[in-house]
Amino acid sequence: MWSVCKKEINQFFSSLTGYIAILLFLLVNGVFLFLLKGSSIFDSGYASLDKFFELAPWILIFLVPAISMRSLSEEYREGTFELLQTMPVTNWQIILGKYFSILVIILFVIVPTLLYVFTIKTLSVAGIDSGGIAGSYLGLMFLAATFASISLCCSGFTNNAVVAFLISAFACLIIYFGFGALSKLRVFQGNADYYLEMLGIDFHYQSISRGVVDSRDIIYFLSLIFFFLLITVKSLHKR
Description:
The chain is mainly α. The protein has one domain (2-238). Helix content is 77%, strand content 0%. It has 13 helices and no strands. It has helices at 2-13, 16-34, 41-44, 50-68, 73-78, 80-85, 91-110, 114-123, 130-155, 161-183, 193-198, 201-209, 215-238. It is globular, with a radius of gyration of 19 Å.
């Protein structure tokens, strides 16, 4: 499993693609948070990173599929999946190896954003809400881990990396915002709106981002991750 994980990480950073993905994530966040009027942290007048945690899910919806799109689709297209099957590893070990490699890459992307915390803390007079920021980062990691499982699953259904990216981005978008949008329809108001909203990722991400770590939110994320990884393994069995 770890050999598969190491191979994926080395492959990602062996080209400029990996470094460009990290730089783009930091650049887009930096421009929105420090330069653009209306979204700049300085315009709010508060020592808070709420703007960052509101913007980050939108970027991750496209960034995580971009990182994950080649994980299985390239193996199918180049015919190396059959070679991988001859190795003394199970399908679960293959999937977990690739999944953990995506998580490590995402960690490389998110860790540099701690510079934003240091910047805001240095510029603030009264200090910052460290507990709330820690909870928000925890929610962001769970969110990215869930997107990674969805994207890896979508990559296992096609041998075209571009198609895998489009399907993954669409799936992440729907599961993140779709249930919340459905819950606002008049037909569900007062009946199933709350339960529909709870099915969406956004509901649980916002809950953890408030700094309150609820076991129900953690169970939700872990269940969703396991569900998509299980589907991915089942798709490998069919092949």
